[in-house]
Design a protein that fits this description.
Largest sheet of chain A: 6 strands, mixed
Order of helices and strands of chain A: HHEEHEEHEEEHEEHEEEHEHHHEEEEEE
CATH superfamily of the largest domain in chain A: Probable tRNA modification gtpase trme, domain 1
Distance between the termini of chain A: 50 Å
Oligomer: heterodimer
CATH architecture of chain B: Beta Barrel
Structural class of chain A: alpha+beta
CATH class of chain B: Mainly Beta
Number of strands of chain B: 10
CATH class of the largest domain in chain A: Alpha Beta
Strand content of chain B: 35-45%
Shape of chain A: globular
Number of domains of chain B: 1
């Protein structure tokens, strides 16, 4: 083994991935399954049609506690955390002083604490950031004794109900403390595929039992990171470090929906002045969906030109959408060219590829609405 | 008429002075599900070891190199219409293009099937 390989971390499901014949690749410091023998295309389609099980144990799970952790967290993110009812969750962003995005995360009001799920590649810096900025105001604990899985797809609810009956009626973006075959789990009705489904947080020691139980159901296949990426891209969801990063604000990133009225009016989060100005006067560039013509995918870092051949931006995520049956992409363009249907030219291997600004998601989201 | 292979996992089958070129079954298994191919136009001059075609899977784009030098006489239109043939028939109907050989001695440096198999075993 090379030095890089020996330095990789593993999740509690690593041996199971290998047993299932996964092709393992380094991702965010972990040795992770990019695909199983089924292949990315079929794994993607299986998730859209039935149910897929994803190991996302590399992600960071963080417990934030204290006298008023919601008020404390609101000093670092623009979301409405104080208004988050118990048992409900919300997507928000850690921002820097320039309004740039340090990470995106899910925040759940778990009653006596907040439960955060952050990106694998950012988790150490997120925890350091929280500890530094919230010193004296909140306790920050990285829960690295936990595993995290996602069960996603139109049959996820039916499958989960066989083990956790009360999961069936959970609302989208809600949280439930439950028991799965006698072991404690935290379920959230959420995910990263545009489909109905759950994320399952459990003790590391119970992860393999839960994974094998779910994979034992006829509707469920193991799904790798390859299909996770094509699923989220079709669903129009951002990948941190690609579609959003420290150089993009929530306004430029077309994430205004993460900026609720109260926070827009009151401020009190990093980068407020810049974000407030962009909300009032507009930003100079914007993240948009991009639909290339024909079948050729346009990948990340592909140059985007306007109708006159002027460079106006770059693709930040791009590939082939198996459900869309066509290439799909997202990227940043100047504001003048950001309206849906605007013709663009992508420069792929030196050749012009016609494309248009497209509405996202590329396939309809099918979240559970009760 | 024997099939020869490159270290970049292309295959070439020569009949007279015409060579048919594709990617090996091992290559397709590594690429994963192919969704797009870009093939050279008839008349294009290819140099041994230089980019000749592009194959895109769901995950990534990869270059296909010319195993021998020559002039393209035909691209496989059926493969353009159904790129998944790279996966289902890599070393038969999933051929990429045919070229008229410029220098048949270039074939000598390529591996035969047995040598390619041995190469795969030692490098993977």
């Amino acid at each position: 083994m090379t030095e890089a390989a020996t330095a990789l971390k593993t999740t509690p499901l690593h041996a199971l991935h290998v047993e299932l014949g996964a092709r393992m690749v380094p991702f965010a410091g972990y040795d992770m399954p990019v695909q199983y023998p089924l292949g990315i295309l079929k794994e993607h389609q299986h998730t859209r049609e039935k149910a897929g099980l994803f190991d996302v144990s590399h992600m960071g799970q963080v417990r934030l506690s204290g006298d008023d952790p919601a008020a404390a967290l609101e000093t670092l993110v623009p979301g409405d955390i104080k208004g988050l009812a118990q048992g409900r969750m919300r997507y928000t962003l850690f921002l820097n002083e320039q309004g740039g995005i340090l990470d995106d995360l899910m925040v759940t009001n778990a009653g006596d604490h907040l439960f955060l799920v952050v990106n694998a590649a950012c988790k150490e810096q997120d925890v350091a950031h929280l500890r530094e900025k919230l010193a004296g105001k909140a306790e920050v604990e990285l829960l690295d004794d936990l595993a995290l899985m996602a069960l996603q797809g139109p049959m996820a609810a039916e499958v989960m109900a066989r083990f956790v009956p009360e999961a069936a009626t959970m609302k989208f973006m809600s949280y439930l403390s439950a028991t799965f075959k006698g072991v404690p789990v935290i379920l959230t009705r959420s995910g990263y595929t545009g489909e109905d489904g759950y994320e399952i947080s459990c003790d590391k020691a119970d992860a393999e039992m839960i994974a094998r139980s779910l994979l034992g159901e006829a509707e469920v296949e193991a799904i790798g990171l390859g299909a996770r990426d094509s699923l989220r891209l079709e669903a129009g969801l951002c990948l941190y470090g690609h579609d959003i990063d420290t150089t993009t604000t929530p306004v430029e990133g077309a994430l205004e929906w993460t900026l609720p009225k109260r926070r827009r009016a009151e401020g009190g989060f990093p980068g407020y002045d810049i974000i407030h100005r962009q909300l009032t006067e507009g930003a100079t560039r914007r993240r948009v969906g991009i639909q290339p013509e024909g079948r050729q995918p346009a990948r990340e870092h592909t140059e985007i030109q306007d109708a006159n051949g002027t460079l106006i931006g770059e693709i930040t995520s791009g590939g082939f959408g198996p459900t869309a049956g066509a290439p799909v992409a997202m990227g940043y363009v100047d504001i003048a060219n950001s309206a849906v249907s605007t013709p663009l030219t992508l420069v792929v291997r030196g050749k012009p590829l016609p494309a248009r600004v497209a509405a996202t998601p590329f396939v309809p989201q099918r979240y559970y609405r009760g | 008429m024997t099939k020869k292979f490159t270290k970049d996992h292309e295959w070439v089958l020569v009949e007279g002075d015409v060579a048919t070129v594709g990617v090996s079954d091992f290559a397709q298994s590594q690429l994963g599900d192919v969704v797009f191919v870009e093939l050279p136009e008839a008349g294009r001059e290819l140099a041994q070891g230089k980019e000749a075609a592009v194959v895109e899977s769901v995950k990534a784009a990869s270059d296909v190199y010319a195993p021998v030098s020559g002039t393209v006489i035909e691209a496989n239109q059926a493969l353009v219409d159904d790129p998944s043939m790279v996966n289902s028939a890599a070393e038969t109907d999933g051929w990429f293009f045919k070229i008229r050989l410029k220098n048949a001695s270039e074939l000598d440096a390529l591996m035969d099937e047995a040598a390619y198999k041995a190469f795969l075993e030692e490098s993977h």
